UniProtKB/TrEMBL annotation:
Signal sequence bounds: none
GO molecular function: hydrolase activity
Keywords: Hydrolase
Keyword Hydrolase: yes
Protein name: Class A beta-lactamase-related serine hydrolase
Matching PANTHER family: BETA-LACTAMASE, BETA-LACTAMASE-TYPE TRANSPEPTIDASE FOLD CONTAINING PROTEIN
Domain Beta-lactamase class A catalytic: 20-259
Xref: Gene3D superfamilies: DD-peptidase/beta-lactamase superfamily (3.40.710.10)
Organism: Streptomyces melanogenes
Length: 289
């Protein structure tokens, strides 16, 4: 059985529709399973925000040590970072970027988007040749569409498959989108210092390595000498992650996995775990090629 067939079988067994692309950053060898199909990025798009932020800094249009005030008013809802804090906060732009990437803090992401603008994010992805990657909404706007589309039933309505079917946030034609191949291309550019200067590329890689969630891609590589750096993304029924797996022999592999579950359950361990399972199948195939 080919690696692509094994990947599709793993998605089926986990009860998800999955799309994957994996790329050997140095040789260019690749494996795909729906790698060119449009997908909803959710918080994976924060990687694009991060790269755009560092482009702005490299061009001298902002200082990453600039201090910003984050009042209580207007914060995005969320269980992590500033979004979950109870008091006013003052921090640097680069510390906001850390919170955006490490714990997927929506308030920090909005703060940074307020500083650089959505147009800068789209200009960055266009410059890097990511023709299928585009941000339609800020994260505040994205969450607002879910609230509006869910209707008076609120968050509880998101357990209803009929409500899920009408969410604009789950339709790549109407929300922030990309393809798995575009995302591995972006990761490769970051790791090869082609997205930004070497100094800023190193800063981006550092933040991706500080993500706290080990239950998706990293679960497929439970080895002390293998490093996984990535960014997750989640919305109702959607579980995604893009990242780079680095081996002690110097091998480095960009992998992007996007899934949508048939179940509307908020907690679905097999759907999380299959991201690591399929990433490992793909990387092992690339290493054996």
């Amino acid at each position: 059985m080919t690696a692509a067939a094994r990947i599709r079988e793993a998605f089926d067994e986990a009860g998800v529709t999955g799309r994957l692309h994996a790329l050997d950053i140095d040789s260019g060898a690749e494996i795909g399973a729906g790698g060119d199909q449009a997908v909803v990025t959710a918080s994976v798009h924060k990687l694009c925000v991060l790269v755009a932020l560092h482009e702005e800094a490299a061009a001298g249009r902002l200082d990453l040590t600039e201090q910003v005030e984050v009042p209580l008013e207007g914060r995005e809802l969320g269980p992590t970072g500033v979004a979950a804090m109870l008091d006013p906060v003052r921090m640097s732009l680069r510390d906001a970027a850390y919170l955006m990437m490490a714990v997927s803090d929506n308030t920090a992401a909005e703060l940074l988007l307020g500083r650089i603008g959505l147009d800068a994010v789209n200009a960055t992805t266009a410059r890097l040749g990511l023709a299928h990657t585009y941000a339609v909404h800020t994260f505040r706007e994205l969450l607002a569409t879910i609230k509006e589309d869910a209707g008076p039933g609120g968050a509880q309505a998101l357990a209803d498959p009929y409500v899920i079917a009408r969410l604009r946030a789950l339709d790549p034609a109407r929300t922030n989108r990309s393809t798995p191949r575009d995302m591995t291309r972006l990761l490769s550019a970051v790791w090869r210092d082609e997205a930004c200067t070497a100094e800023h590329g190193a800063a981006i890689r550092r933040l991706l390595g500080l993500q706290v969630w080990p239950h998706r891609m990293a679960s497929g590589f439970p080895f002390d000498d293998v490093h996984v750096a990535g960014k997750t993304g989640s919305l109702p029924t959607l579980r995604n992650e893009v990242g780079v797996i680095e081996y002690p022999d110097g091998g480095r592999y960009a992998v992007a996995v996007f899934t949508r579950a048939a179940s509307t359950a908020a907690t679905l361990p097999p759907a999380d775990a299959v991201i690591g399972t399929t990433a490992r199948i793909a990387v092992e195939a690339l290493r054996g090629a």
